[in-house]
Amino acid sequence: MIETAAALEPTFGGPLLVLAILLPVVGVLLSFVLGGRFAERVALALAPVGLVLALAIAFLVWRSGAPVVYNIAGLAPPLGIALRADGLSGVMLVTAALIVAAAGFYARATFATPEGSTEARAPFAFWILLQGIWAALILLFIGADLFNLYVGLELLTFAAVPLVCLSGKPETLVAALRYLMFALFGSVFYLLGAALLYGAYGTLDIVLLSGRVAPLPAVWLAAGLMTAGLLAKTALFPLHLWLPPAHANAPAAASAVLSGLVVKGSFVVVVRLWFYVLPALPGDAAQVFLGALGSAAILFGSVLALRQPRLKLLIAYSTLAQIGYLFLIFPLASGQHPWTIDGWNGGLMQTLSHAFAKAAMFLSAGLIAESLGHDRIAEFTGAGRAMPVTFLALGLGGLSLMGLPPSGGFAAKWLLLRASVAAGHWVFALVLLAGGLLAAGYVFRILSPALADGSLVLKSPPQRSREHAALALAVVAVALGFAPQEFFDFLQIGRMAVAAQP
Amino acid sequence: MTPSTLAGLVGAALVGLGLYGLIVNPQPLRKILAFNLIGSGVFLVFGIVARKGAAAGFPFDPVPQAMVITGIVVAFAASALAVALILRLHEETGQVLLDDENPASLPSEQGAGK
Q1: pLDDT digit string (tens) for A34-81?
Q2: B window 34-63, beta carbon within 8 A of A
Q3: 3-state SS, one letter per residue, for A233-257
Q4: Most C-beta atoms within 10 A of its C-beta, which of A13, A241, A306, A462?
Q5: Any domain includes B77
Q6: A237-258: per-residue pLDDT in tens?
Q7: pLDDT at position A75, please?
Q8: Which range is least confidently modeled, A142-146, A436-440, B89-93?
């Protein structure tokens, strides 16, 4: 109980958490009021400020070795609402800031307000929605109250869905509508679960709940409802139907944010639910079930990715498979065993490396589609020579997806593999290996025609600066493979069920 | 039967009806109505949950009420967004279906970067 009391006390630097949320919200309002090309300027100007704030929060967490806490209006839970940033929040905040900045930089060419006009619909909407997504993600990463997280989830949906149909074409509208349906039912189930938890314990604060939950039928029901709702939003197999059309139809910069970050937002909430709210439940069977769904997603998504004729669809199906890896964290990091440290680190490393690798790949795919005028993989012959930097970014992203060393994907899969062997979950180890092979298959399917000899006429050469934005993200995905031990110690900060050291 | 038990049962029935509508109806507009039914059921359940606050020493717990109001606003915004999308889709294609066999659900040639 002493630990719980300490976790509720506001700490030094807490106001930074409020600033981090307010910054993009103010950006949205400013963009809306000023209008026109100011939306773009505001978004691009705030991106570095947000990055500095995220780094400052991560630094405070690292220095104190404990979560940074802020109680809104000075009222402690259960009456007030707390914001809490731990190791997980720290890395996710920095990741979100980097990817939003890169996507914004990349999108300048696509979503510039045309000369001579004061305002154009698509650019104006894009810059506001981008900041909206960013605000929602920050709220999800540092929210410490289940209802607050619900508001964050809804904000994320409302900002992400219109991004899918920015072009206004019928197929994008269908994709956006289907995405919205899944997301809406996901959030209403989540809300019902939250209501049940509130009815049982009179609070929705994560720390307070974790000390109170007992394996009652109402809690199990709430856990089931909330998990099902969140899985629909995260697009875990078999609730994935909305993802490939939505992510493949969105403009490239939006796809990068949707695939790299937005699905991670609801994933972080599932992690909060099972590892922070419900560790007291004897939920081994449920955790293994989540892992089994993840394994099915890895195999199913990879096989479908192998069969896609278009690059963007292939990358979208690959996201399905990579989301599957994330859910291996549940069987591999739950409980009090020494191997759960590896499982936890591996799961989070997968979250980060996939975010960077996938964002880089979608940005590259956008450049390829613009330069070639199509994205049919079979007609890529010679494209690697025509646009080498773009394909380098695509290849480095693919390297991380396959899990080849040295890359963040390799570190993630290696840690997950070690944890699954130590835990005796042989099936997960086999799935991890098979998933790597399948990923190699679909990445080589893109690269082998592109690197073949052939002459190809580009409609327009890709812009150098945009190629570099994609390449920078891919390099981060690879560089994560060199993360030192201190980085993994950082990921453990604030983790509730910290296992005994081996 | 106390009023709160009755409210709880009505809430459960609304959620059940909404779920049925969600699964059975392929039309997006009906799905939105089903979503609103489930939402109403959830808000009812949330409302009677406030009774629990009495056990914690409050005469009546105000927090669930605040959450319900937020939830209603969010559900309204969600419905409005969905209806706007449906209207736009109807303008573009003359029909509103979320059919997997529909060729329109495949990305177009120039889908990227526009």
Answers
A1: 887 888 888 889 999 999 999 999 999 998 888 888 888 888 777 788
A2: 35, 38-39, 41-42, 45-46, 49, 52-53, 55-56, 61, 63
A3: HHCCCCCCCCHHHHHHHCCHHHHHH
A4: A462
A5: yes
A6: 888 888 998 888 889 999 999 9
A7: 81
A8: B89-93
B107 inside domain: no
Task: Inform me whether the pLDDT recorded for B113 exceeds 70.
Answer: no
Q: Do B70 and A185 touch (CB under 8 A)?
A: no
Chain-chain contact of A188 with B61 (C-beta, under 8 angstroms): no
In this prediction, residue B105 has a pLDDT band, given cuts at 50, 70 and 90, of very low
| Three-state secondary structure of chain B | CCHHHHHHHHHHHHHHHHHHHHHHCCCHHHHHHHHHHHHHHHHHHHHHHHHHHHHHCCCCCCHHHHHHHHHHHHHHHHHHHHHHHHHHHHHHHCCCCCCCCCHHHCCCCCCCCC
| pLDDT tier for residue A4 given thresholds of 50, 70 and 90 | low
Give bridge partners of residue A237 from the DSSP assignment.
none
Say if CB A312 and CB A375 are below 8 A apart. Answer: yes
User: Could you list the residue range(s) of the whole structural domain that residue B33 is in?
Assistant: 3-97
Write out the DSSP string of A382-401.
Answer: THHHHSHHHHHHHHHHHHHH
> Is ipTM > 0.90 here?
no
Does residue B34 belong to any structural domain of this protein? yes
Is B30 within a domain?
Answer: yes
Q: What is the pLDDT of residue B101?
A: 43
10 Å Cβ neighbour count for B37? 21
- What is the CATH number for B11? 1.10.287.3510
In angstroms, the CA A202 to CA A208 distance is 10
- Mean pLDDT for A10-27 is 89
DSSP line for A17-72: HHHHHHHHHHHHHHHHHH-TTHHHHHHHHHHHHHHHHHHHHHHHHHHHTS-EEEEG
User: CB of B81 within 8 A of CB of A161?
Assistant: yes
Max CA pair span of chain B: 63
Look at A154 and B78 and tell me if their CB atoms are within 8 Å: yes
Residue A333 C-alpha from the chain's centroid: 19
Domain count, chain B: 1
Q: What Cα–Cα distance (Å) separates residue A42 from each residue in A19, A23, A45, A122?
A: 16, 11, 5, 16
Residues 6+ apart with CB under 8 A from A246: A164, A175, A176, A178, A179, A258
C-beta of residue A117 within 8 angstroms of C-beta of residue A161: no
CA–CA distances in Å: residue A143 to residues A61, A152, A205, A502: 15, 8, 9, 32
Residues 6+ apart with CB under 8 A from A325: A294, A298, A347, A350, A354, A412, A413, A416, A432, A435
Which sequence spans correspond to the domains of chain A? 295-502
Chain A residue numbers with beta carbons less than 8 Å from the beta carbon of B38 are 185, 188, 192
Tell me whether B2 touches chain A (CB under 8 Å): no
Strand, coil or helix: what is A84? Answer: strand
